[in-house]
Structure formats: C-alpha cells, structure tokens
Amino acid sequence: MRRRLAAVLVLTTLVSLPIVNPPPVAQASTACTGWTSTRVPPTTIRVLRTSGSAAGKVQTVNFERYVQVVEMSEWPSTWPAEALQVGAVTVKQYAWYFAMNYRGGTGTGGCYDVTDNTADQVYRPETRIPVASVIAAADATWDVSLTKSGKFMLTGYRAGITTVCGSDADGVHLFQHSVYGCAQAGMTAEQILHLYYDPIVIWSAPAKPNTTFLSPPEQGQLTTGTSVTASWAEAAAAGRTITSRSLSLALAQPIHGSCSVDRWLPAAPAWHSTGVSPQTVTGLQPGLCYRFLLQVTDSNGTTTSSRSGTMLIDPLAPTGSFSAPALTIVTTSATTATPAWSENPVAGTTIVNRILTTEYAAQPSAGSCAGALWTTLSQSTSASPASVSGLKKLMCYRFRVTVTDSAGHTGSWASGDLLVS
Q1: H helices of 22-168, where?
Q2: Could you tell me the residue range of the domain that residue 166 belongs to?
Q3: Any idea what the Cα angle at residue 230 is, between residues 246 and 227, rounded to 5°?
C-alpha cells in the first residue's frame, strides 16, 4: 500500500492519524470522471469500495459528502475549526486532483478515481457519519483551491510526531499534529496552508458579487461611432445569485481629445437598463465622452458597483468588433489564442494602420477577471485572424485593436476576456 497507519503517539490528547502522500501519477489514455475545472470542485467522484457488502464495486458519490466522510475518518472532529478547515482543503484537493487525472483503475461498474482505503483516503460512509464541526469546515472552504508553480496542486498529509507548529513543514505535506499546534496558537487556516505548502497561491470565491466590463474595457479609452454595446461578466459569491442590475450612462467633455477628466454627469437624455449583458445604446453625441455605470445586487442584498472604460464619440471613426474572443469570458486550457475581428471603415476610406495589443493580468479571484489590473504584454500589426502564443495558466488575457483610416480617423475596440485554466 502507498500509505500506512502512523504509530501511536505518546500524546494523550491526540490520536494516531493516517498518512496521505502524493503518489506517482500514471497518466492513462482515457478519462474517468474527467473533471476539468481547477476553480469549481467536482459534483461527484467515483470511488472503488474495498470492504463490506459493496467491496469491489465502483460507486458514484456526491463529492461534498465524500469530503465530509473522509475528513471524519482522517481528522479528529474535536480539533480547532482552523485545523479542520485545513484538513477539509487538503482532503478535497487530493480527491479533486484525481477526478481530473485518471490513473487507469477499474472495478465492477467501470472506472474509479480513488479507492476508499489507505491507498488513497479512508471513505467509510456506513460508519463515519460527519458531525457539525466537520460539515462546517467543508462548507467554509468549499471554494478554496491551491496552485503551486502555476499548476493545480496534489496535496498530501501525514500524522507527524510533534505538535510544535511548522517544525516539520517540508513544502509538500501537511503534518497533522503540528497543524493542531498551529491552530492552538491562533493561526488561521490560510496562514497554516501557506506555512506548510508555500510557495502556493490560495484561490477562493469572492465574498460579494463582482463585475467586469468586457466592452468598453475597464481601463483605457476607445474611439467609436454613435452606437455602442456594453458587455460585462458578473459572478455571485458562493451560494448566492445575482437578483438585479442597473446600467446607466454618464457623459463628459473631453480635454484635448482625452476622456481622462474629473467631471462626469448623468447622460442627457438619460439612458438606463436593467437587462442582462449585452446592452446597446444608440444616438450618442459626437465629440463627447461616455462611460457606463453598473450596479449588481445579489440574493443576500449585497451591491457592487463598477464602471466601464471611456468612449470618445466620432461618427467618422472606423468601427469593428471581435468574434473571438467575443464579448464574453472564455475559459481555455490552450496556451495559444487566435483573436479574430471585423473592421468597418467609413465609406470612401480604407484602413491604413493597425495595432493589435495583447493585455494580461493575474486572476484577482477564482475563475474571474473582474477587477484585474491589466498590463500590456505585446503589440503587433497582425491582421485578423492573428495568433498569440505563450499564454500561461491561471492568467487572464484580452485583446485590443486600434485602426486608423485613410482620412486620419482612429477607432478602437476590445475583445472579451480569455481565462487560461
């Protein structure tokens, strides 16, 4: 077996705990559960049962219940909440990893991701009934995941032989008894995870709804015609939904062709929408600057506000739009993107200059680009469709085209966001 039970410790307040080591992963040619998201946990997992009346059978198990039952077996339920939260993260991510990386195992009923014994993690739903402390730990950390060196991390844990906080940290395993010591010392679950697994990135779902404008993008100025489409992405915190939204327009006088001004007023005539993305407004006045203001409210009554980038209205400016990535958020595992767009010069003119700008940012929250701080990665004069390589995992990307026509008018537009998983 890959794991063995730890020797009984001479510690009257603690119990002997099993060992979970990251094993070598033999990559199979096919998938089992085949989960792909590194931000949203699987809904189910396939478990090979090895004892009792179900021995030899593969069961499809609710993943959240699986995590609770395993933690009930592997971690003492009377330990401090912070230690149990650390345990919930490591138990969940260990199984989650193998729901994504199939090792080729099969039993009666088909393939399985993990076994129910010490070869993986102990799963005994018939006898190990989760108590409130264990359920609360899983609930509190359900949207947490760990990455290391840009990759979804395979977690491991051992019992350890000391309660001295962090004394046996090796960057690969948790040592349960010293984790207990850390929790007793007042450390948070996040601090403990960093202490034992660093360097890692801990991702979690936002605590409030967030939004990000795809068009006009939140940073920078676009020059466009008198009709504009606002497109945005929105995400609610775990367990909540977006219940209402309010989109309006503000306007300003440009200064020397720039919309970087301090004074913004409600648009006149007023424009307002409560609809979902995208929304189009027409009849914008030439020579003015506009921007969209958005408020979304979730089912808990929490409201978040955001504003788009700015737009300088020029009816003679060439216009266009991206077909890939379109004005949505697209998730991909590819490291190469092919942005594609249309270009529509005003009659009698032609496009004489073009700049394609690729921007990137770290995901500010799990699976979202909302609020990202964008940085220019590269620029080219490529025509549509273009090829952009070298994308990195767990990063956000977007593209911006700026074109100038033969009459000297400039137009620009942006793509949706591309999340590399």
Answers
A1: 63-74, 81-100, 132-140
A2: 44-203
A3: 120
What CATH number is attached to the domain comprising 409?
2.60.40.10
The single-letter code of the amino acid at 328 is T
- Is 22 a residue whose pLDDT tops 80? no
H or E element at residue 194: helix 189-197
Question: Is 6 within 8 Å of 19 (Cβ atoms)?
Answer: yes
DSSP 337: B
Give residues with Cβ within 8 angstroms of 156, minimum separation 6: 20, 21, 22, 90, 94, 172, 173, 174
Single pTM value for the model: 0.54
Q: What distance lies between CA 178 and its chain's CA centroid?
A: 30
Taking phi over 0 as left and psi of -120 to 50 as alpha, with beta for the rest, 283 belongs to left
CA distance 288 to 306: 21
Task: Name which residue leads in pLDDT, 49 or 5.
Answer: 49
Q: Is residue 25, in this structure, part of any structural domain at all?
A: no
- Both tokens of 389, joined, read 């390589």
Q: Are residues 130 and 223 in the same domain?
A: no
Domain-terminating residue out of 181, 203, 225: 203
Domain boundary among 184, 203, 222: 203
Say if residues 399 and 352 touch (Cβ distance below 8 Å): no
Residue labelled with tokens 């006045």: 285
Examine the domain organization and report whether 243 and 96 are in the same domain: no
pLDDT tens-digit series, residues 62-91: 999 999 999 999 999 999 999 999 999 999
Whole-angstrom distance, CA of residue 158 vs CA of residue 180 = 12
Question: Is the distance from CB of 126 to CB of 143 less than 8 angstroms?
Answer: no
- 258-282 in b/e burial notation, b at 16+ Cβ within 10 A? ebeeeebeebeeebebeeebebebe
